[in-house]
Amino acid sequence: MTHDSPPGKRPSPDSPAGERPSPDSSPREDASPDSPSRKAPSSDSPPRKDQSSDSLPRKAPPTDSLPPENPPPGRRPVTRRTVGRAGQYLALLCYLVFLAFPFLWLVSTAFKPPRELGSLHPTWIPRAPTLDNFRTAFDEQPLLQAAANSLLAAAVSALVAIVLATPMAYVLARLRTRFARAATGWVVVSQAFPLVLVIIPLFLVLKTLHLVDARTGLILVYVVWSLPFALWMLTGYVRAVPPELEEAAAVDGAGRLRTLVSVTGPLLAPGIVATGLFAFITAWNEFFFALVLLKSPEKQTMPVVLTHFLGAEGVADLGPLAAAALLATLPSLLLFAVIQRRITGGMLAGAVKN
């Protein structure tokens, strides 16, 4: 009876037939996982514990992707955004000081007595505040009449400019034609014309129409002068209104005028208020046109009346002048403080779903 040899090695012909090869003489399979002779495990078999992902070495992340070290407690890292924000606040503070300095000095001067006004060492806070400067200002000049004239001219001119500029801005914003582009360019260029360039032709035209030394002529000039700026501002506000709202109104049968009044008009309320406010302040503070076109003292506006506090030799009566200038400044400040809450840009939020 012959014995079968192991599958790994045949028996030598010199060895006896009945002798089996020793276990040391048979080749052993390499136990390392990299040996090619080892059979790969089946994909269906569960992974072995020694081949789990936790035991495999991981590649170290690059140093660039590592998070920065934690800053010491009580100190925040300085970034470009922080530096930029600090620069913005610093510039805003400088601009605020630049605007507030003349106004604070005006308020301080209006309440100082003549002795403190001529002092070689002026102070911010009056040592002996007085109201004599306001009494003198009202006694010397007709400030109430001048304020009424300025209020009438500024309010009427701002209202007329808004009424005329709103439909014109709607046409320029919605009709993208060459004429609309040319008109918009002309509006911007017209603001660069100096007043001296137009005052003589304007005076001749008003003289022909018998509107010199008349409040109506001054209001007409203010309307023409503020209309380009109002038109330019309202055009931008109209373009910000989504056209889908007007298309929906057109589907419901609304015409252009009905769409402008009922749909676009309410959405333009912040822009109309802001534009009217700027037109009012411009007309309230205007001096050159009122000086040239108005000659009667009872028709002159507030800026023109303020020049009467200057003497014949150019010496200013500083106390009453400061008091009158403060009174002339307050209406525009109060109007802006009341209306600025209504100037908001969030009225269009959620009006149209994208």
From TrEMBL:
Coarse class of the protein's main subcellular location: membrane
SUPFAM superfamilies per the UniProt record, alphabetical: MetI-like
Alphabetized Pfam families for the sequence: BPD_transp_1
Keyword Transmembrane helix among record annotations: yes
Subcellular locations according to the entry: Cell membrane
Family: Belongs to the binding-protein-dependent transport system permease family.
CDD domains hit by this protein: TM_PBP2
Residue stretches of biased makeup (Pro residues): 64-75
Protein name: Inner membrane ABC transporter permease protein YcjP
Transmembrane feature ranges: 89-111, 151-173, 185-206, 218-238, 259-284, 318-339
Membrane topology: Multi-pass membrane protein
Key words, A-Z: Cell membrane, Membrane, Transmembrane, Transmembrane helix, Transport
Domain ABC transmembrane type-1: 147-339
Location of region: Disordered: 1-80
Gene3D superfamilies: MetI-like
